[in-house]
Write a structure and sequence with these properties.
- By secondary structure, this protein is α/β, with parallel strands linked by helices.
- The protein has 2 domains: about 240 residues, P-loop containing nucleotide triphosphate hydrolases (Rossmann fold); about 40 residues, no CATH class.
- About 35% of the residues lie in helices and about 20% in strands.
- A 6-stranded mixed sheet has the order 6-7-8-3-9-10, with helices on both faces.
- Helix 3 crosses helix 4 and helix 4 packs across helix 5.
- The chain binds adenosine-5'-triphosphate (ATP) and magnesium ion (MG).
- Adenosine-5'-triphosphate binds next to helix 1.
- The site of adenosine-5'-triphosphate has 11 residues, from helix 1.
């Protein structure tokens, strides 16, 4: 679990940026973090694993205080982080060395390192590319490589800070699938930062930041049901959610847990007696 308790943060010489953030990310939970540009999302991300320390308040990871230098290595092993720019996260000259870098620094045995590298590459769809230069990978593959490097550390949490921002639609979709599986298959808690709300369909919960404070913290469905909040945050509702709201308004679909396109189409076609027809 990651816990923020009354966290304030200001960069040296800067204005207060985060003002009294209290927040918990439970084990295995998938939380989306949104907010306008400059609202402090990346700063919050860096506070989760001690890259930054609160100017006031505390951050704990599985009970370990990020301000305790003694616990920092254990905290960094537990909270993996993937940033926006794939090129800034490459450390090895071939794919398998890149993934092995973290486990090697943990001082693990060669066989265990090898096992983790294979495991991490297979769960990110990168098997077969072991001997490739990371520089020769696509943007999406590079980001999955960054996730593999984090996975090889066997973290309990992963923070994705706009990790899809520089990817094309295919790369984005593949990374989101990997992100969804982190929780579903591996039980890893995910903190997913994005300004694209359609990327939050795998999140259980949404946290919204505005002017340094948490202005919403609740179930994803409730967040999308509040157009005024989205407006205030300067965020566009996903097209799919707008469609869902309209179909609901006309009584064409009922309440859906996860309004995917497939679910909407099947609800509408079933209602119109078209099930099984067409595409
Ligand atoms: N290293 C730094 N030193 C001083 N100020 C900084 C530093 N990093 C960020 N800031 C400032 O802190 C504020 C919040 O930045 P942060 O990157 O946390 O926001 P964000 O919500 O991630 O924004 P974006 O949506 O653009 O990624 C911004 O005004 C930014 O200029
Ligand atoms: Mg940011």
């Amino acid at each position: 679990m990651i816990e923020f308790s009354g966290v304030h943060y200001a960069y040296p010489g800067g204005e207060p940026l985060l003002k009294g953030i209290s927040l918990r990310i439970a084990d295995g939970e998938h939380v989306g973090l949104v907010g306008s540009n400059g609202s402090g999302k990346s700063t919050l991300a860096k506070l989760t694993n001690g890259l930054l320390l609160p100017t006031q308040g505390k951050v704990f990871v599985d009970g370990l205080d990020t301000a305790s230098a003694h616990d920092l290595a254990a905290i960094r092993q537990r909270v993996g982080m993937v940033f926006q720019n794939p090129d800034n996260q490459i450390v090895g000259s071939i794919v398998e060395d890149d993934v092995a870098f973290g486990p090697e620094n943990l001082g693990l045995e060669t066989a265990e390192i090898q096992r983790r590298v294979e495991w991490a590459l297979s769960h990110t769809g990168l098997r077969g590319l072991e001997r490739r230069s990371p520089m020769a990978l696509s943007g999406g593959q590079k980001q999955r490589l960054a996730v593999a490097g984090v996975l090889a550390m066997q973290p309990s949490h992963i923070v994705l800070d706009e990790a899809t921002a520089m990817l094309d639609p295919d790369g984005r979709r593949e990374l989101l699938e990997v992100a969804r599986d982190l929780r579903r298959v591996h039980g890893i808690a995910v903190l997913q930062i994005t300004h694209l709300l359609e990327e939050l369909l795998a999140a259980d919960r949404v946290v919204a930041l505005d002017r340094g404070q948490v202005v919403f913290d609740g179930p994803r469905g409730q967040f999308f049901d509040d157009p005024k909040l989205l407006d205030r945050l300067g965020l566009e509702p996903p097209v799919l959610m707008t469609l869902y709201a309209e179909l609901k308004r006309y009584g064409l679909v009922g309440r859906l847990e996860t309004p995917t396109l497939e679910a909407l189409v099947s609800a509408v076609t079933a209602g119109a007696g078209l099930a099984g027809e067409g595409a």
